[in-house]
Design a protein that fits this description.
The protein is built from 16 helices and 18 strands. By secondary structure, the protein is of the alpha/beta class. The strands form 6 sheets. Strands 1-3-4-5-7-9-15-16 form an 8-stranded parallel barrel, surrounded by 5 helices. A two-stranded antiparallel ribbon has the order 2-6. A two-stranded parallel ribbon has the order 8-10. Helix 15 links the parallel strand 15 and strand 16. Helix 3 runs parallel beside helix 5 and helix 7 packs parallel to helix 10. The radius of gyration is 21 Å and the shape is globular. The structure holds 6-O-phosphono-beta-D-glucopyranose. The site of 6-O-phosphono-beta-D-glucopyranose has 15 residues, from loops.
């Protein structure tokens, strides 16, 4: 029996700042990612308030997708993709974020890109903001902290949605919007950098760019409003467009059945995973978050219209990234592991990746069931994959570890569908190797296609198919039956 719908959106996911490069071409303005250098799991990425063009910055050339998108999309088509998730870089459309008129060259570039996908019947799924706010928004408006940024974002979103309404039917507003509750999300997600760092002259580790919780929560509130207004706008433009939220779901297990650990797990899960989804799917702040605000002495600045904006701009589907799970506990004498956005207590039943992320395919089935029970709207796994070091042997890459990771996760999606969950699609991160968002490394590779580029910025950008390429092609061809 074929478990997945014949319309299941198989494909891959990429982000402009991690793949495009061409940082100063086509009229693009600078983005917040253009100011961070490469790091590693052990060495944090450095933020440089002034770009030193003699040094290597991963986003500046990334994997040169801007010039090679035809080749890359042809490779995705060869694997049989039905969907490609990409992001538009706001700064290619409004170079400073607040320009009076859009940059035609930027619109033309994305127009060509989407046409190229449609040529192969690949459905574009477009993220409006994936970690690359225009630098002008960061410096003039303090990212999303100023309410004015809501209007600027909505204007940008309306511009591209109107322009591409005939080419793009699926949209996501903010990538991993829940990242804003974490300290590390201040930079990537909310565009918040304290004045002293912005005006400084020496590089600062990204991990040291601290911003208060109060500011992060205020900026996040503005993102929720911006997202809800965009949902409304998109539906006005065309009621058939489908707009989703995008949450990084870092599923939490209690480390023990100690009731204290259970409560700790529930609290973490609510704040980190469920809060943003609840606001965007249900259109209202959940009561547990109001209590947490009181506990933390947080007071949101709101306007009388905010409640209506949120309730009228709920999303059509729930998209999320899933790489791993973590354990929560009140104990502080337990072994810790790394993770996407944040680490947690080590789960003795799971193996970790080379970057210390716990690999948990069954956790994906559990998460899909949990989300379906909670929201009952279509779900989509828009990121999942294994960051690993690949060796090129005689021009070939034998990435059986990656195949194993995908095989096990896709099996669990099928089981979740049999459990009754409505899963619309699956886009693996990232079909072609791209720059790691967390570490800025190239050697942390996710692709079915290898890119000849190293962590110092050397390499020809040549593309090589890995073993996983043929495996994923077969998986899609058989609609997930042959894994
Ligand atoms: C997600 C992001 O958090 O994880 C992607 O949306 C990112 O941008 C992906 O690339 C994998 O994380 P990393 O740090 O290994 O690139």
């Amino acid at each position: 029996m074929n478990r997945l719908s014949e319309f299941f959106l198989w494909g891959g996911a990429m982000a402009a700042n991690q793949c495009e490069g061409a940082w100063k071409e086509g009229g693009k303005g600078l983005t917040i990612q253009d100011f961070v250098r490469g790091g590693s799991a052990a060495e944090p990425r450095m933020f440089t308030p002034v770009i030193d063009e003699t040094l290597y910055y991963p986003s500046h050339e990334a994997v040169d997708f801007y010039h090679r998108y035809q080749e890359d999309i042809a490779l995705c088509a060869e694997m049989g993709f039905r969907c490609l998730r990409m992001s538009i870089s706001w700064a290619r459309i409004f170079p400073n974020g607040d320009d009076e008129t859009p940059n035609q060259e930027g619109l033309d570039f994305y127009g060509r890109l989407f046409e190229e996908c449609l040529k192969y019947k690949i459905e574009p799924l477009v993220t409006l903001s994936h970690f690359d706010l225009p630098w002008g928004i960061v410096t003039k408006y303090n990212g999303f902290l100023e309410r004015k940024t809501i209007d600027l974002f909505v204007r940008y979103a309306e511009t591209v949605i109107r322009c591409f309404r005939d080419k793009v039917r699926y949209w996501l507003t903010f990538n991993e919007i829940n990242f804003g509750v974490l300290q590390m999300g201040a930079y990537n997600s909310l565009g918040l950098i304290e004045e002293k760092f912005l005006k400084g002259s020496s590089p600062v580790p990204k991990t040291k760019l601290e911003v208060s919780l109060a500011k992060r929560i205020q900026a996040l509130h503005h993102q929720f409003l911006a997202s809800a207004l965009v949902v409304q706008k998109a539906h006005e433009i065309d009621p058939d467009l489908k707009i989703g939220c995008m949450i990084s779901h870092i599923t939490q297990y209690p480390l023990t059945c100690d009731p204290e650990d259970m409560l700790e797990t529930q609290k973490k899960d609510r704040i980190l995973n469920k809060f943003a989804g609840d606001v965007m799917v249900r259109g209202v702040y959940p009561t547990y978050i109001r209590s947490w605000f009181e506990e933390e002495n947080l007071c949101l600045e709101t306007q009388p219209e905010d409640a209506d904006i949120l309730s009228q701009g709920t999303v059509d589907f729930y998209a999320f990234s899933y790489y791993m799970t973590n354990c929560s506990t009140v104990r502080n004498d337990v072994e810790q592991v790394n993770g996407n956005l944040m680490g947690g207590a080590k789960n003795p039943y799971l193996q970790t990746s080379e970057w210390g992320w716990q690999i948990d395919p069954k956790g994906l089935r559990y998460t899909l069931n949990q989300l379906w029970d909670r929201y009952e709207i279509p779900l989509m796994v828009v990121e999942n994959g294994l960051g690993a070091i690949d060796e090129v042997e005689d021009g070939e890459i034998h990435d059986s570890y990656r195949i194993d990771y995908f095989r096990k996760h896709i099996k669990e999606i099928k089981r979740a569908v049999l459990d009754g969950v409505n899963v619309m699609g699956y886009t693996a991160w990232s079909p072609v190797d791209s720059v790691s968002a967390g570490t800025g490394e190239m050697c942390k590779r996710y692709g079915f296609v290898y890119v000849d580029r190293n962590d110092n910025g050397a390499g020809s950008f040549a593309r090589i198919k890995k073993d996983s390429f043929a495996w994923y092609k077969r998986c899609i061809e058989t609609n997930g039956e042959v894994l």
